[in-house]
């Protein structure tokens, strides 16, 4: 999804800024791409919360597989997705659209083993 919309491999976002990948916490947001990651984390947290769509899901939204499509302009979540799949998909659509709107700054990218796999 990110590759389609932002034209960058999703794994390359790991270790970008302070909020892309497994880092985060209370560190400051360094730029708008990092803010995309920060907001994506918050979206997943909301979906995983006690009243969230993924509250009963064993793996939560991070590892939920879902149906989606790309028409060359817009990303679409599949209508057949259950509530958790839809929540996860919508979080990812928002993030992919955000990444596509903001420039990548290589100064904020820290090396990650995922870079080799991307």
From TrEMBL:
<dbReference type="GO" id="GO:0016042">
    <property type="term" value="P:lipid catabolic process"/>
</dbReference>
<dbReference type="InterPro" id="IPR001211">
    <property type="entry name" value="PLA2"/>
</dbReference>
<keyword id="KW-0106">Calcium</keyword>
<keyword id="KW-0378">Hydrolase</keyword>
<feature type="disulfide bond">
    <location>
        <begin position="77"/>
        <end position="89"/>
    </location>
</feature>
<feature type="active site">
    <location>
        <position position="92"/>
    </location>
</feature>
<feature type="binding site">
    <location>
        <position position="21"/>
    </location>
    <ligand>
        <name>Ca(2+)</name>
    </ligand>
</feature>
<feature type="active site">
    <location>
        <position position="40"/>
    </location>
</feature>
<protein>
    <recommendedName>
        <fullName>Phospholipase A2</fullName>
        <ecNumber>3.1.1.4</ecNumber>
    </recommendedName>
</protein>
<keyword id="KW-0479">Metal-binding</keyword>
<dbReference type="GO" id="GO:0006644">
    <property type="term" value="P:phospholipid metabolic process"/>
</dbReference>
<keyword id="KW-1015">Disulfide bond</keyword>
<dbReference type="GO" id="GO:0005543">
    <property type="term" value="F:phospholipid binding"/>
</dbReference>
<feature type="binding site">
    <location>
        <position position="41"/>
    </location>
    <ligand>
        <name>Ca(2+)</name>
    </ligand>
</feature>
<feature type="domain" description="Phospholipase A2-like central">
    <location>
        <begin position="1"/>
        <end position="118"/>
    </location>
</feature>
<feature type="disulfide bond">
    <location>
        <begin position="36"/>
        <end position="98"/>
    </location>
</feature>
<dbReference type="Pfam" id="PF00068">
    <property type="entry name" value="Phospholip_A2_1"/>
</dbReference>
<feature type="disulfide bond">
    <location>
        <begin position="43"/>
        <end position="91"/>
    </location>
</feature>
<dbReference type="GO" id="GO:0005576">
    <property type="term" value="C:extracellular region"/>
</dbReference>
<keyword id="KW-0964">Secreted</keyword>
<dbReference type="InterPro" id="IPR033113">
    <property type="entry name" value="PLA2_histidine"/>
</dbReference>
<feature type="disulfide bond">
    <location>
        <begin position="54"/>
        <end position="84"/>
    </location>
</feature>
<dbReference type="GO" id="GO:0047498">
    <property type="term" value="F:calcium-dependent phospholipase A2 activity"/>
</dbReference>
<dbReference type="InterPro" id="IPR016090">
    <property type="entry name" value="PLA2-like_dom"/>
</dbReference>
<dbReference type="InterPro" id="IPR036444">
    <property type="entry name" value="PLipase_A2_dom_sf"/>
</dbReference>
<dbReference type="GO" id="GO:0005509">
    <property type="term" value="F:calcium ion binding"/>
</dbReference>
<keyword id="KW-0443">Lipid metabolism</keyword>
<feature type="disulfide bond">
    <location>
        <begin position="20"/>
        <end position="37"/>
    </location>
</feature>
<comment type="similarity">
    <text>Belongs to the phospholipase A2 family.</text>
</comment>
<dbReference type="GO" id="GO:0050482">
    <property type="term" value="P:arachidonate secretion"/>
</dbReference>
